[in-house]
Amino acid sequence: AEFVAAEEMGRGRGYWWSPDGAQLAVARVDTAPVPRWWIADPANPAKTPIAHPYPAAGAANAEVTLWVVALDGSKIEVRWDHERYEYLTNVAWSGHGLHIVVQARDQRSLAVLRVDPATGETTEVFADRDDVWVELVPGTPSWLPDGRLVMACDWGGARRLVVDGLPVTTPDVQVRAVLGVQGTDVVVACNPVDDATVQHVAVWSEQGGLELITKEPGVHGATVGGPTIVVRRSHLGADGAVTSVLGGSDLVSHAETPLVRPNVTLSRRGERRLAIAVLLPHEAAPGTKLPVLFDPYGGPHAQRVLSARSAYLSSQWFADQGFAVVVADGRGTPGRGSAWERSVHLDLAAPVLEDQVDALHAAAEADDRLDLTRVAIRGWSFGGYLAALAVLRRPDVFHAAIAGAPVTDWRLYDTHYTERYLGNPAVDDAPYERCSLLREAAALTRPLLMVHGLADDNVVAAHTLELSSALLAAGRPHRVLPLSGVTHMTPQEVVAENLLLLQLDFLRESLGLERPG
Amino acid sequence: AEFVAAEEMGRGRGYWWSPDGAQLAVARVDTAPVPRWWIADPANPAKTPIAHPYPAAGAANAEVTLWVVALDGSKIEVRWDHERYEYLTNVAWSGHGLHIVVQARDQRSLAVLRVDPATGETTEVFADRDDVWVELVPGTPSWLPDGRLVMACDWGGARRLVVDGLPVTTPDVQVRAVLGVQGTDVVVACNPVDDATVQHVAVWSEQGGLELITKEPGVHGATVGGPTIVVRRSHLGADGAVTSVLGGSDLVSHAETPLVRPNVTLSRRGERRLAIAVLLPHEAAPGTKLPVLFDPYGGPHAQRVLSARSAYLSSQWFADQGFAVVVADGRGTPGRGSAWERSVHLDLAAPVLEDQVDALHAAAEADDRLDLTRVAIRGWSFGGYLAALAVLRRPDVFHAAIAGAPVTDWRLYDTHYTERYLGNPAVDDAPYERCSLLREAAALTRPLLMVHGLADDNVVAAHTLELSSALLAAGRPHRVLPLSGVTHMTPQEVVAENLLLLQLDFLRESLGLERPG
Predict the structure, then answer these.
(1) Which of A24, B207, B366, B476 has its CA 20 to 30 A from that of A468?
(2) Would you state the pLDDT for residue A516?
(3) Does residue A32 or residue B492 have the better pLDDT?
(4) What is the mean pLDDT of chain A?
(5) Is the torsion defined by CA of A285, B477, B473, B390 positive or negative?
(6) Cβ atoms of A241 and A257 closer than 8 Å
(7) Of B49, B494, B495, which is closest to A40 when you measure between CB atoms?
(8) How many angstroms separate the CA atoms of B173 and B342, rounded?
(9) Confidence class of residue A16 from pLDDT cuts 50, 70 and 90?
(10) Which residues from chain A sit within 8 angstroms of residue B43, using beta carbons?
């Protein structure tokens, strides 16, 4: 799969077997037109840099065609209107035939096409369009046994299950994924639109409509195979997760019990009923003021405030060092319906930051131990962008920031993700300029630590280095911690542990906190 | 010229015309065996990295041969024992014929060879050897009109002018360079071995011996051409330099008067009579304690303590921000005779650092305004190495350090420079291990700011990145400021200015100083 398919479309593969095993649908990916970005290892100058075809926003994507190849060596190109639909987002080959999902570059339309493998001809069987964007939903397309198509679309305010072109769930439920089809039942993951902190597994059937098969609070997922459904549940009342065969027994878990025990309270606050988690030290003396650490992600396609204890381990570790840690999911995060998710269209900065500020004030109103004179913010990836944005735009609220692997200029991020939110910068650069941290560098007055893996081939280190250069050009002190040999995440245990310690050190120094004796 | 010739041997060129213009001596440089080091620009990922043949200590050098080529297309190789003499350090083609200077890889021997351009045969006309190293002296070889060879060698304790194989200057004078031959006179730059802060221009003649032609204190250089000598003088009593034709008039200078006015006192102190410059703020209230900033280079082949006002502009800028700035040249720096310069053989760390500590104590004894509880050190290149070394090994003395483009592991520096001091690590790695900062990373307890140009192809950024990784692995907080698009020096005015301001900010924060109201 080309980079954006794997990273942004959830399509990690490039070939699909026919059900009889006699043919393959194969994507041909030509990255020749894509800009080459170089990922070097400056800590090991003898190591040859890697040329990485990176389709930055506005630049050329890989040219993707699909071919049906057979054991006899024959090769037939699947034909569709590539001008209209630049992206091949999914391929499915089942007893219902070979289908592809294609999407326009502007992401306002997609189509499911049925392919005749003998000729490569395609016929549209479903199309969706939206003035903002159409969403790619995991598990779609699927089919009922009678051949009716199962999709999920943002129609009428929420993401709804769509069978044979008609919505079959109500707009108060947000369908997150189609998990499988079992007989004539469709198994989905979903949540109430007014509460995205939980996630349930439900079954839709023509007879019964949508029926939850998980009833307890928590975050549930499921895997469907043959007549079996295996459910995995995490919740606030226990560590880890419980995996059980539906209607059968729990699987034994040998997972280690975490050393950190989240002391977390979820609430919904403010005008927009923001989901907020507050984590407190286990032994905070009553009446003590606590410095505040915001620990958000804040961007599209990921949530941080969940009814699951395991979501809070790093946050609680910071809380145990003496912070009130606040985690909030604001506009742009998934689960709360179409309008909520789309509030960041053409502006990934202002509404996201505004909701964090609102969450702080709401949390402080509810608990007067939160010390609003000492507020820091940390985050990784989009969360790093948000953290840097916070100290640049709201130094009155945020007094220090740690930006891990931040985006600093969306022009340096990829086509499929970025153009969905900000449009094509080759057509209109204004949203990119509006959301760039580089042009705001001179506003920095708060301690800012940037951490970035030099081997990051997703959010490349240029994001941090360009912001650092802009800060230097503006004479603004700041800190950079370049991580040699580290990519977008830091799975290396020793690096991860030391990063926590160094962040803590930075927070204490920046907020003027005493080290505990 | 290959990298080490240009960077370390003072040979910036690779071809030499015969006096009659009919032939050329041409160096053929084959970098195939040299390791490729990649210099990327991670702030501009689309920029193709440059493959840079970098002969790191212990690795293969470029293969250098010399050829005499003529206008008729003929080509003759100059033959010498390449096994014995790996380096071609200089070539001279004059009325006295074609000569080459070759040097052994271990730098303990060199030879001047006379070349027969018709056959490529060579004959040794001079050889020198030394148990530690032989020095390459600018301006050598030269010739008197009668054909006698003029060299300069470390013989009997100092660098002496050598004519026809015999030393003709006394060991109380250090000859720094041969500036030219004028008639039967040899014009040299030199200084008294007991005072390297001055430099004079002198003329040696058979009749008169060595006679100074500059009598005033200061730092003098000269250019010799035909019957003319042009002398350039800098001293402590005036800004800039005065350039004058010897026996004639001064050239008019249009140089700007620096905004910074050095308030500097030179002295010789301590057991080793270290040359020390102390720079004070112009308006230090009497009796105020002053935080101390060390501002050394400290390494071989460069001095910082000179009787020239222009040497102290950056240092005085820091002094004017409220510091007592101390600059000291210790063992290993040039000008004070052979033993002094060679004290760093096999150890570039301990004696260098010891002399800085001694200089601090000597300076503080002489002026009780120096506050020994607030001492920082800054330096660039070798000075950056020294600054980082200082906080690692002597946190009792140094409370903060700024290491600009530091060497942190001598294995990552080049053959010709590094092997001269530490030997070949492929033969004996112990001196490299002894002088490596990487293995001492866990000792860091003081604020350390590392600044490094990511485009540095001399002291590559890997030095800083590897020390940063080692510090991270040891959980030691530190700061890195990566400079995008910047090489070993920072000629960019805006970068240079902001770097000063950010350094000042770091020093104030690290030493707990108030910003002036």
Answers:
(1) B476
(2) 65
(3) A32
(4) 96
(5) negative
(6) no
(7) B49
(8) 17
(9) very high
(10) 461-462, 465-466, 469
The residue behind tokens 């380096």 is: B87
Which residues in B424-440 are b (16+ Cβ under 10 Å) and which e?
Answer: bbeeebebbeebbbbeb
Give how far B449 is from chain A: nearest CA, Å: 9
**Among candidate residues B465, B237, B336, B48, the one with its CA nearest the CA of residue A42:** B465
The rounded distance, in Å, linking the Cα atoms of B231 and B218 is 12
- Name the amino acid, one letter, at A456: D
Interatomic CA distance for residues B272 and B362, integer angstroms: 11
Question: CB B477 to CB A502 under 8 A?
Answer: yes
Say if residues B390 and B22 touch (Cβ distance below 8 Å).
no
Confidence of residue A290 (pLDDT cuts 50, 70, 90): very high
Taking CB atoms and an 8 Å limit, are A472 and B466 in contact across chains?
Answer: no
Token duo for residue A369: 């131990």
**Encoded tokens for B103:** 């040097």
Strands in A23-30's sheet, in edge-to-edge order, are: A15-17, A23-30, A63-70, A75-78
ipTM of predicted complex? 0.92
Is residue A141 reached through a cis peptide bond, with omega within 30 degrees of 0 on the bond before it? yes
Q: Are A347 and A434 in contact (CB under 8 A)?
A: yes
Q: Which residues of A touch B (CB under 8 A)?
A: 35-40, 42-49, 54, 412, 454, 460-462, 465-466, 468-469, 472-475, 477, 479-485, 494-495, 497-499, 501-502, 505-506
For A458-507, write each residue's pLDDT tens digit: 999 999 999 999 999 999 999 999 999 888 887 778 888 999 999 999 99
Cβ atoms < 10 Å from Cβ of B320: 19
CB–CB contact B494 A505 (8 Å): no
**What digits encode the pLDDT tens for the residues B202-249?**
999 999 999 999 999 999 999 999 999 999 999 999 999 999 999 899
A168 vs A165: CA distance, rounded Å: 9
For the whole model, what pTM was predicted?
0.94
